[in-house]
Design brief:
By secondary structure, this protein is an alpha/beta fold. It has two domains: 241 residues, no CATH class; 257 residues, Carbon-nitrogen hydrolase (Nitrilase/N-carbamoyl-D-aminoacid amidohydrolase). Helix content is 44%, strand content 17%.
């Protein structure tokens, strides 16, 4: 009994180690060590039932530390404090199943095909495939939660994630899991060859940065962007007493040190920067138009309401405000318990955001077009965590604009993880990402996902840069996730071929 407790404790500790270190690039060796303990532990244990709970405890430790920030929204308003322990423990317990299920599959597989010296590459490949499939499933099932994917550990340097423009974030995730698994198995078998994948894989990733191409001439396809980060406290954001002060602050940051009065300028404000139904506030819209130059475009988050008979719908929206134009986009992916309550008749008290009415899912186009001088700019809008999901546009979008309010998550690693997941959309599409967050982290990236300008957590200010546009025509966007399937098949065939060659060489020596 004591041996089982010790075993379970080791898996739980391994999950905590990996989960704690996932957001910090200098802790990458620690992250690797946690996964090493997990994979080697599964190999050593032969009982499926034992590994089911071992995998579950690893997952619980991983998610309770890597996504500890899930508790923060429940601490903003006093009426939600009682729910905080449930969010902190039940949420990671459920997510832990995404490690327990592949743990059973791996155990069954190793029972049939023991991890002996033959066909090591192919066996590591299939172990990796079980782990990857669970990660992929987590990104889509029940609305999906593609946070803290294996690929996200590489976002500290844009050169490591350039490969995502060819194989996407999930392709990089699979390769990363395979890297962990193969290296761990070789270390366990005390093979000096473990240094080969350990060192060559990062070099392989960096090599893809040489494919970078300059697609546009310097004097064309550039726009001037200003990203505003007001850093308004979450408790004050919806207080009507401070409404005018918030508008004044947004406008002040939008006009501060403005030396661009004769240039076209796009100013981006964060999610629900204007806490009103903006489509009904004609006076406010006119007030904003009067306070910006004729060449300025404001892109802001706000609320929208539409009436259908005696009923009305509320939307979390993004608006484009120009002197002669007014457009909107309604958010399509809503946050459960944040913007709507599943099974509301039972769980009514769970809604975190102010107001008793659930937000409605948007049905507007997934791209915007507006005039920037004499040329039309087409971009893909996203609100809050919409940016962490893959999207496939047939329109030639030129940039991504994400507005969010990560003030809900305080000074935790949540905003950093949110940004890491969002940056992959820029790399996959080959377009820059413009991100305005109320309290941080706001960024402007180039079309390779490299951060050009950044404003950290809990700071008030703005970012301004002239950026080159993209065209949404990377190899990955042309072929989408079919690249993932073909890549997995190719790697399997390659591994089988190498294993067969190695076995043949060994038999010849004998």
């Amino acid at each position: 009994m004591s041996n089982k407790i010790s075993l379970y404790a080791k898996f739980f500790l391994a999950g905590i180690i990996s989960g704690t270190s996932i957001s910090f690039p200098y802790l990458l060796p620690i992250f690797f060590f946690g996964y090493y303990l997990f994979i080697v532990g599964l190999i050593d244990n032969k009982l499926p039932f034992l590994n089911f709970f071992s995998g579950w405890l690893f997952g619980f430790g991983f998610f309770i530390t890597s996504m500890h920030w899930i508790i923060n929204p429940f601490l903003v308003y006093d009426e939600h404090l009682i729910l905080a322990p449930f969010a902190l423990f039940i949420f990671p317990l459920i997510l832990g199943l995404f490690f327990s299920v592949p743990s059973i599959l791996i155990t069954k597989f190793l029972y049939i095909f023991p991890l002996k010296n033959d066909f090591i590459l192919s066996k590591c490949f299939l172990i990796s495939l079980f782990l990857f499939f669970a990660e992929y499933l987590r990104s889509f099932i029940f609305g999906g939660l593609p946070f803290n994917l294996s690929a996200h550990i590489w976002t500290f340097n844009a050169n490591f994630i350039k490969i995502a423009s060819f194989i996407g974030v999930f392709g990089l995730s699979f390769l990363t899991i395979f890297w962990f698994t193969l290296t761990s198995v070789l270390i366990k078998k005390k093979s000096k060859l473990y240094m080969l994948p350990l060192l060559l894989f990062p070099v392989f990733l960096i090599s893809f940065s040489v494919f970078e191409k300059k697609k546009f001439k310097e004097n064309k396809n550039k726009i001037l962007i200003r990203v505003v980060q007001p850093n308004i406290l979450q408790k004050e954001k919806w207080n009507r007493i401070h409404f005018q002060d918030h508008i004044d602050k947004l406008l002040e940051l939008s006009l501060l040190n403005d030396e661009t009065k004769n240039k076209n300028l796009v100013v981006v404000w964060p999610e629900v920067a204007l806490t009103v139904y903006l489509n009904e506030q004609i006076d406010l819209i006119n007030y904003l138009k009067k306070n910006i130059t004729e060449n300025t475009t404001i892109i802001t988050g706000g609320l929208r309401r539409s009436f259908e008979g005696n009923n009305f719908k509320v939307y979390n929206s993004m608006f484009i405000i120009q002197r002669d134009n007014f457009f909107f986009y309604d958010k399509k992916r809503l946050v459960p318990f944040g913007e709507f309550v599943p099974f509301r008749s039972i769980l009514d008290f769970w809604k975190l955001t102010p107001g008793e009415t659930d937000f409605s899912k948007g049905e507007t186009n997934s791209y915007f077009g507006f005039l920037y001088g004499e040329k039309e700019l087409i971009f893909q809008p996203s609100i809050c965590y919409e940016a962490i999901f893959q999207t496939f546009n047939y329109k030639k979008i030129m940039m991504l604009i994400n507005v969010t309010n990560d003030a809900w998550f305080g000074s935790t690693t949540g905003p950093k993880q949110h940004l890491a997941a969002s940056i992959f959309r820029s790399v996959e599409k080959g377009v820059p990402l413009i991100r305005s967050a109320n309290s941080g982290i706001s960024v402007i990236t180039n079309s390779d996902g490299k951060i050009i300008k950044k404003l950290g957590l809990n700071k008030s200010g703005f970012l301004q840069s002239e950026i080159g546009l993209g065209d949404n025509s990377t190899f990955f966007m042309k072929h989408k996730n079919s690249v993932l399937l073909l890549g997995i098949i190719f790697i399997l065939i390659l591994n089988l071929a190498l294993d067969s060659y190695i076995k043949k060489r060994k038999s010849l020596k004998i």
